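Q: Sequence in, structure out?
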Amino acid sequence: MPRRDFLLLVAGALGGAGLVSALWPFVDSLEPAADTIAAGAPVDVDLAPVKPGQQIIVKWRGRPIFIVRRTPDELKMLQNAADTSLLRDPNSQELQQPTYARNWYRSVNPEYLVLVGICTHLGCIPEFKPKGADIAGGNWPGGYFCPCHGSKYDLAGRVFAGVPAPYNLPVPPYHFTAKDKIRIGENPPDKDADYSLSDVEQI
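A: Exactly. Output:
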């Protein structure tokens, strides 16, 4: 390679590196700030593909969010004494949900359950177990079982009595943006505008 071409190549490379160095602070400024990442932007979820009796899991703010489409029979069980008699807080007296989800089905729409999937004992991830699953004690009504220390929750995320977990599974802020679409991380425009997971007793 002639000396002149070599010098031009080196000068071009150095100029390119200088341009990248000059532009990097600008490019870096386009990245979300650490506090913005920690706060977590809302997540939109399409519920149309979810079948009755099925659970899906999405992630919001680094946490698993359980979404279950409950069947009519499962909803009926939530009001049955065979279920409620097993629970520590069947009426959701403890603040583990916003007021718009403080009802017997613990959700905005009875058909869809939305929970933070973290056991309130030591932070393990409970497993979704439908009715009839082989869970210690028998007569399992359907819900969640934490394999770490045996905590159990029903299909409204209400904790069983006599297990290590002290509270119901938390309900995150969320609302429906359409008939079969929800936005997790944002309260309904007209309700509990200030509710956040920092308000709950334990997560």
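Helices lie at 3-29, 34-39, 72-77, 81-84.
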